[in-house]
Write a structure and sequence with these properties.
12 helices; globular
């Protein structure tokens, strides 16, 4: 799912120039390893609670032994460190390496004790930081930072901040239905403390809405400043804003029971943010019609792939 995001930033950063393929291949391998570490650390650290939140966890199902997983996690981190050193030697790009190290640390500290930021009020910040660094490092492998990538990363960070709270409200919904948490006498669901966020549902909802909608305020600002072009700005506002609003309206209607549907709308918005950037980048190389066709192929092909290989089928898209 991140590949179109990486490709988009690389294409835009190159601005028509030919890349150095050796460092680029090494970069992709390193980035995939770091992304895998973030996912694996979350799977490993959450094995005690994923009977509810992620029942396909291979450590929970017995498909992977805990001791083997621990050793594999150590090996992954050693390999990542060696690859980063190699990438530094090949590129001498200190800004790139620093950004990748920050992303690496954010991915691990998000889940692994003693930090485990996912269980604190810092959760949405670390969640958004990790996601926002993906376009930044993809750009840095081919070009120095400029106003565009900084602006896009800022927009993406703010939107993902709100989306991170969406994930906590999903877990709260599951925990409430499973009886792990309960509403206290005389209180409603708005007063329930969100799982792993330490704020009540009403406050979490407010922050979620402010951050998600606030991110779209940045778009006309960047458009006015000449940082975002009209096509990118109008596509983000015309496609992802309505999906975001639909998710928030469902949240207002029923803050917890509508969590699966909120996840679907906001998950689609997240995918379209990436695809819109991808289409914008590809249209600089080929006719815009082919760029849209490439996005349509992804939109059709990705759910079919998920349905085929994901243990939850298409329900995996909504995080159920």
């Amino acid at each position: 799912m991140y590949v179109p995001l990486w490709l988009a930033c690389i294409i835009l950063g190159l601005d028509g120039e030919t890349p150095e393929w050796g460092p680029l291949v090494l970069f992709f391998i390193t980035l995939m390893i770091i992304g895998a570490i973030a996912q694996f650390s979350n799977t490993y650290a959450d094995r005690g609670e994923d009977w509810l939140y992620g029942p396909t966890n291979p450590l929970l199902s017995g498909d992977l032994e805990v001791s083997l997983a621990r050793r594999a996690f150590i090996v992954q981190n050693i390999i990542a460190g060696m690859l980063l050193i190699a990438l530094l030697i090949f590129t001498l790009n200190y800004a790139l390496i620093l950004a990748m190290i920050v992303g690496w640390l954010a991915g691990v500290s998000y889940s692994v004790p003693p930090f485990r930021f996912k269980e604190t009020v810092l959760h949405p910040i670390i969640f958004a930081l990790g996601l926002a660094l993906f376009p930044v490092v993809a750009w840095l492998i081919v070009a120095p930072l400029n106003d565009f990538i900084i602006a896009f990363a800022a927009f993406f960070f703010v939107w993902c901040f709100g989306f991170g709270i969406t994930q906590k409200l999903r877990k709260t919904h599951l925990a409430l239905n499973a009886g792990l948490i309960q509403t206290r006498s005389g209180e409603g669901v708005y007063d329930v403390n969100t799982v792993g966020f330490k704020l009540n549902v009403k406050t979490a909802m407010a922050i979620e809405a402010v951050m998600l909608l606030g991110s779209f305020v940045l778009i006309p600002v960047f458009w006015h400043l000449g940082i975002f072009d009209p096509a990118l700005s109008m596509a983000l506002l015309a496609v992802t804003l309505p999906l975001t609003i639909m998710g928030l309206l469902l949240r207002i209607k029923d803050p917890l029971n509508n969590s699966p549907r909120c996840n679907k709308f906001l998950g689609l918005a997240w995918i379209f943010i990436i695809l819109i950037l991808f289409a914008t980048s590809v249209s600089s190389l080929i006719h815009w019609g082919f760029a849209i066709l490439a996005c349509l192929i992804f939109i059709i092909g990705f759910p079919l792939l998920v349905k085929r290989i994901h243990p939850w089928g298409c329900k995996g898209l909504s995080g159920q």
